[in-house]
Design brief:
Helix content of chain A: 25-40%
Structural class of chain A: alpha+beta
Number of helices of chain A: 10
Radius of gyration of chain A: 20 Å
CATH architecture of the largest domain in chain A: Alpha-Beta Complex
Strand order of the largest sheet of chain A: 7-9-6-10-8-11-12
Oligomer: homodimer
Shape of chain A: globular
CATH topology of the largest domain in chain A: Phosphoribosyl-aminoimidazole Synthetase, Chain A, domain 2
Largest sheet of chain A: 7 strands, mixed
Distance between the termini of chain A: 37 Å
Number of strands of chain A: 12
CATH superfamily of the largest domain in chain A: PurM-like C-terminal domain
Chain lengths: ~325, ~325
């Protein structure tokens, strides 16, 4: 079945995502109208994803829409913000069917419910190239309470949420580069690659506790490097303290070289943040309250020759590449 | 010279666009922070553009960035809103050089000054496909004062700003499909295709005068059809009243069939709006104040079998296609 024309397509697939979003005007106008909650600062982020670069063209379509939304929500989490809504543009290649779009939108609808945000507007165009998606998320935070990348101090502890490396290993699993790994581990890693968990409940608890924060999208070492540069500091990580999932642990046990991939691969969408050592108790309480595990993985140091050093039993681990750049 | 890696690229080409935009945090954080002006409603729109679909791959790069921003500003104009800032994502193919990006960003910088808005954030990724751009514009309007597509009444006059058809004919001129047209006319039409004129000064004057408004992006007849559907009405246009530029007039004089293209082609980015006949005097004053020509081109009628009829000396003009759909 060929695609319906632009307007029918929007009505069928995307208008349901704007239901109950008053300012979206049913996606039938030139722009959305939004009365921002009084006394809140707006938080705005945008991310793009290209088939074959940021997701696999044969990923289930419902996970593609959800991943797009979630990587943006992860940016809000890193600022300690709450989601409000989003705008999305889609550039669709000829092979996209209405059934594909149904599933894509179904995934988004599910996540809208889960995260409390709706579609405000956007644009749908055709492309002769790969499926290309862009999403701008709108959130809010109390004035002066946003977490930023600036502010880490020497002596601060470095913390990370959840587990590290699952997304990068998930991509390897999905492209048959993890032979011998048990099926349940492959499935767990693939799921993490396809469906990031934006750490919104954690982010909104970190204001006043974390001195700097960001989300790990391009690899732990590279992203922690951003915190270092913003503060004019270096960081030391303890390899043994970096939290691995059971599945990632099994992959690394089978091939020790994959540990470096965990540290430098992308697609974690965990929060990495710094906090004074005295906040350890408060952070343990937050982990207990939110159910999001937190691990203390290192500390900030005065600037040294290497931005981020990873030590195993006190010996520096060589890392071939420090992270994933979206431009190669 | 190969492209620098993602972060160097952002620093060189895009960070200068975020200078003096406080909440942009120098594009160095996960999201932008924006304190919305008190007592204003936010207006948000997003548009995507693909090389070879929405612009020509060999268009001057400075015009490509400006067109992207301007088509979004045109959406704000259609709502009567004022621009505040924008977020942009770029998916860059391998052939894009730093020099190309310099020119692209230079065009944006110029328009930022002209329209009073700055870059708040975004994302830069690579693509194996065509250059694909997405922009979300943020504006504001006084509460309850936004123009929308809903609200036209039978008997209202239909008005349009500027001239119609230049963008569509400009695309024909640039692709050598207007043989024999004088060089200065070709240049004028090409310029209109590449650089829309968002009618912001007009939009912000129309609140309380226009009953419905939108910008003409997909062709006058199709876009006026949206106003008709939103109101449950039809519209009648007088062909002789549709304003053509000198260049478009010359093209139509040489090939009368091009008149239909003017009415149904896209890329005008003029405002089409409805207003009670009694507002004619007020509209003449607005045209004089803003320097933006306004033409009364028809009227809204009770719903008939055809949504938009175009009459020439009282005889209905057949139109082969009613507009440009971005999905074919």
């Amino acid at each position: 079945m060929p695609l319906p024309a632009e307007f029918a397509l929007i009505a069928r697939h995307f208008r349901p995502l704007a239901e109950d979003v008053p300012g979206a005007l049913a996606l039938a106008d030139d722009a959305a109208l939004l009365d921002p909650p009084a006394g809140r600062t707006l938080v705005l982020a945008a991310d793009a994803m290209v088939a074959g670069v940021h997701f696999l063209p044969d990923d289930p379509p419902d996970t593609i829409g959800r991943k797009l939304l979630r990587v943006n929500l992860s940016d809000l989490a890193a600022m300690g913000a709450d989601p409000l809504g989003y705008l999305m543009t889609t550039a669709l290649p000829p092979g996209i069917t209405p059934e594909w779009l149904d599933a894509f939108a179904r995934g988004l609808k599910e996540d809208q419910r889960g995260y409390g945000c709706g579609l405000l507007g956007g644009d749908t165009v055709s492309t002769p190239g790969p499926l290309t998606l862009s999403l701008t998320v709108v959130g809010t935070v109390a004035p002066g309470r946003a977490l930023t990348r600036t502010g880490a101090r020497a002596g601060d502890a470095v913390w990370v949420s959840g587990t590290i490396g699952d997304g990068a290993l998930g991509l390897l699993a999905l492209t048959d580069r993890l032979p011998g790994l048990a099926g349940r581990h492959r499935a767990a890693l693939a799921d993490r690659y396809r469906l990031p968990r934006p750490r919104l409940p954690l982010g909104r608890r970190l204001s006043g506790i974390a001195t700097a924060c960001l989300d790990v999208s391009d690899g732990l070492v590279q992203d922690l490097g951003h915190l270092c540069r913003a503060a004019g500091l270096s960081a030391e990580l303890e390899a043994e303290a970096v939290p691995l999932s059971e599945a990632a642990g099994a992959a690394v046990a089978a091939n020790a070289a994959l540990f470096a991939r965990c540290l430098t691969g992308g697609d974690d969408y965990e929060l990495v943040f710094t906090a004074p050592p005295a906040q350890s108790g408060a952070l343990a309480a937050i982990a207990a309250d939110t159910g999001i595990p937190l691990a203390r993985i290192g500390r900030m140091t005065p600037a040294g020759p290497t931005e981020v050093r990873v030590l195993r039993a006190g010996v520096e681990l060589p890392l071939a590449e420090t992270g994933w750049s979206h431009i190669r």
